[in-house]
Design a protein that fits this description.
Layout (H helix, E strand, L loop, with lengths): L1 E5 L6 E5 L9 E11 L1 H10 L9 E9 L13 E4 L2 E2 L5 H4 L10 E2 L11 E5 L3 E3 L6 H4 L2 H13 L8 E4 L3 H12 L5 E4 L3 H9 L4 E3 L7 H8 L6 E4 L6 H8 L5 E4 L11 H7 L2 E4 L5 H12 L9 E5 L4 H7 L8 E4 L2
Parallel strand pairs: 10-11, 10-13, 11-12, 13-14, 14-15, 16-17
Antiparallel strand pairs: 1-2, 3-4, 3-8, 3-17, 4-5, 5-9, 6-7
Helix pairs in contact: 4-5, 4-10
Bound molecules: zinc ion (ZN) (2 copies).
One zinc ion binds next to helix 4.
């Protein structure tokens, strides 16, 4: 099969030909129909995955073949599915409750085992979610990032009367905006320095849009929400200093949800959290219910998910496009269609 792998010259990727993967016990072989490129893939490529790995964890595909002991009544070749990119032991308490990411044997598909930047990949059958025909091809690969966002919104315990600020309008910030809007929140502020992303945020329902590169955002935030500030702030950038800023912006007894991936030390001012009695929560990955809720919402056309996608690429185009992501931070979701 054709595939894109991480080269020895990391974080660069290259197209190559590999043997077709063979599904192991409890796994299926998928023909990949779509795989989103994720901001976290940049971290995976630069320091987390070994050279030679096939990246890509936002996987949708068609079942090609069942491995040993997969329930043949439940899963049929030809079924279109989204795959949660989890591989755990399958029987510990964390795996049983659907959070294999906390399993001692956890391997993330697309980082610790081959993922979706290929024509074919293998995934665990118990991490598959069948997709109804109502979900168009371009949206099938968006189930994963939308499920990330749905989990973050769930962590915020959001109610329609909340007022929300979202720092960062990359695909996860945008997906959070779509969910927040879907849940009935009307006052949604999004801040991002990139023009295309600010534009997408407006289309996905943001009521106030700020450019943090034009100066401090505090005046704009307080103009939008009054001096109290928003009741919930989502930190979706992973940039140092932004958890502190989120805590500064949030109303007394408000909630901060940290979704951005920051891989370095960062400083907060604990007294801000103490003084306001803030809840600062972290959100990573998703439960099974976040996948099923996302699929239901897409089936009902309740989320403008396709509006997040600004580009599709094929396998040949992927390495060059991926390299440009390191410097070009403006744009929406890019989906690989092998
Ligand atoms: Zn992702
Ligand atoms: Zn386990």
């Amino acid at each position: 099969m054709r595939a894109v792998i991480l080269t020895d010259d990391r974080p660069n990727l290259a197209v190559t030909t590999l043997d077709d993967p063979v599904p192991g016990v409890g796994e299926v072989l998928l023909r990949v129909t779509g795989c989103g490129i994720c901001g976290s893939d940049l971290h995976v490529a630069s320091q987390m995955a070994p050279p030679g790995m096939v990246l890509g964890h936002e996987i949708a595909g068609t079942i090609e073949e069942l491995g040993p002991s997969v329930d043949a009544d439940r899963w049929k070749p030809g079924t279109v599915v989204a795959a949660r990119p989890f591989a755990g032991c399958g029987h510990c308490a964390q795996c049983v409750r659907g959070r294999a990411d906390h399993c001692m044997e956890f391997a993330l598909v697309g980082m610790a085992r081959p993922g979706g930047f290929a024509e074919l990949t293998t995934v665990r059958a118990d991490e598959l979610f069948a997709l109804p025909a109502s979900i168009p091809a371009i949206e099938q690969a968006l189930v994963e990032p939308l499920a990330i966002a749905r989990r973050a919104v769930r962590r915020a315990a959001l109610v329609p009367t909340d007022t929300v600020a979202i720092l960062g309008a990359g695909p996860i910030g945008l997906a959070i905006a779509a969910w927040v809007r879907h849940l009935g929140v009307e006052r949604i502020l999004v801040s991002d320095p990139a023009p295309i992303r600010r534009d997408l945020a407006g289309r996905l329902g943001a009521s106030t849009i700020l450019d943090p590169s034009a100066g401090p955002i505090e005046p704009g935030v307080f103009e939008a929400f009054g001096w109290d500030g928003p009741t919930v702030v989502f930190e979706c950038t992973g940039r140092p200093g932004l958890i502190r800023q989120a805590m500064d912006l949030t109303v007394v007894e408000g909630r901060v949800v940290v979704v951005g991936v920051c891989l370095q030390d960062d400083v907060t001012f604990p007294y801000t959290g103490l003084n306001k009695e803030l809840d600062v929560r972290y959100s990573l990955y998703y439960g099974r219910e976040d996948y099923t809720a996302t699929i239901d919402a897409l089936d009902a056309h309740a989320l403008d998910a396709a509006g997040m996608v600004t580009e599709t690429v094929d396998l040949e185009q992927l390495p060059e496009r991926f390299a440009r992501l390191r410097t070009d931070t403006d744009g929406g979701k890019i989906v690989l269609q092998p």
